[in-house]
Amino acid sequence: MKQTPVSHKLVDRLIKASGLDDLTGASIREIVKLVNELERESGTKYIRMEMGVPGLEPPEVGVEAEILALRRGVASRYPMIDGVPELKREIRRFVKLFLDLDVSEEGCIPTVGAMQGAMAAFMVANRSDRNKLGTLFIDPGFPVQKQQCRVLGHDYESFDVYDYRGEKLGPKLESYFKTGKISTVLYSNPNNPAWICFTEDELRTIGELAEKYDVIVIEDLAYVGMDFRKDYSQPGVPPYQPTVGHYTDNWLLLISSSKAFSFAGERVGAMVIGDKLFSRTYPDLKRYYTSDGFGYSMIFGALYALSSGVNHSAQYALAAMLKASNDGQYNFVEGTREYAERANFMKRVFQENGFKIVYDHDIDLPVGDGFYFTISYPGMKGDTLMRNLLPYGISGISLAISGSTHTEGMRACVSQIHKSLFPLLEERLKLFHKDYPGYK
User: Fold this and answer.
1) Range(s) for CATH 3.90.1150.100 in the chain?
2) Angle at 152 (CA atoms; ends 130, 209), nearest 5 degrees
């Protein structure tokens, strides 16, 4: 038995106790639970790459704004479901200044994180036409969004986009859209977990096909501005964060404060609905809601039923952070650039110890450094790789649950790997590579 930081027997025992027969099917939170138990019983600090927990301090302007709101007594009052005016105004400004999109304040709606935004989007958009069945996921992607569809009883389709970039994307999308069964199409940009980014030409293709087949595009911007290969940090100055909103009226954006503002704990984000989609009517919505209006059904149907509003004080925090960004007083992109520096080092040290980057190119460019990257080890399938890394005090999640066809790989998140942990990571990877040389 190899000498490792954590005993193989303990790892095997806790995996067996968890009931996870195949780790490639385990959810993010199930892996988190398993690693928590391994740390507790072994007393060993893990290199934790399984969950996208922000690893930076939140902006002081947001913290102070929330404290002031609480002192004003907002905790005793229910917030309006469609959001406090200050926040709606700053969401509208943010979308204009950083995405170059014009939208009315009525379509700028706070949500309990982008997660709730996605749930509400499915509840309305996927019920807008009784003849359509559900969502097309452009994978790899965030696995919980598919779970949301399953919970709602919605059907979905998916495909791994890596082999369908550029000119290949249109025919692939159209093969699904032309069936007439797709209500919505969803993708993240930058992508979780591959960190690939759609080009303007690809976004134009998505938008034009959405118009042709009347499909609603749900664009997940959880990592807005975080393609660090370009500078999207200056308000009102190009380049702007790329968005499908320039190429279709059928758009809905999900914006998170968790990564861009390191504000995950307060569970506040935003849904932004284009004006034409917001005001559009769908008679089939009256099967579930009192109105056939898309925007009205979203606010007073789905969001009302889900949470009856968003944490009152957190709305003021997000408003303050957006205002500081909009006014050029806080550079939210620069505040997250450390993730790129961590990814650059981590990718290098993994590759020096026998690993491969799975999603290594963004069409004709190397994939950027950011919040996530993807790894594999020659000859090891996903479950084997995850099991073999755990005794070395290293954890991640399987690419299989993201919809990837590269089931031998893992997603690595850099957010919890502070630079102080770099020597420990390198030491453990060297030991792993020594124990598994030229693995076949």
Assistant:
1) 8-44+337-435
2) 50
Query: C-alpha angle 159/162/168, rounded to 5°?
Result: 85
Tell me the CATH number for domain 60-326: 3.40.640.10
- Is residue 371 within 8 Å of 223, Cβ to Cβ? yes
C-alpha to C-alpha distance for 384 and 403, rounded to whole angstroms: 18
pTM of the model: 0.94
Residue type, 122: F
- Rounded CA gap, 368 and 135, in Å? 28
The pLDDT of residue 440 is above 80: no
Q: Is 159 helix (H, G, I), strand (E, B) or coil?
A: strand
Taking CA atoms, 412 is separated from 133, 332, 355, 372, in Å, by 33, 23, 12, 6
- Burial (Cβ within 10 Å: 0-12, 13-18, ≥19) of residue 315: buried
CATH code for residues 8-44+337-435? 3.90.1150.100
Which residues make up the CATH 3.40.640.10 domain(s) of the chain?
60-326
Kindly report, residue by residue over 162-176, the tens digit of the pLDDT: 999 999 999 999 999
